[in-house]
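Table 4 source record.
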Amino acid sequence: MSTIAVGDLMFAANTISTETYRSLEVFTVAALIYFIVAFPASLLTSWIERRMQDSQTQVPRRRKMLPAVAGSGKQYRTLRKQGGE
């Protein structure tokens, strides 16, 4: 979007400035037009990215706690190997 818009906008501004000899005013207006178009688009894109990133994050699962008895470390390792985290 921005590549085509900037090229077209600058071409039109250059054409007008060569006809009117008022380059400062013409390019200032062109910059304002670009800002009015690009800034809200940038905000919208950032908002969409945050929404997509938030929807993809998962809540971490809690581990099953084993009773505190002698040898519980071995039982925990066995439980992890079986896939029962």
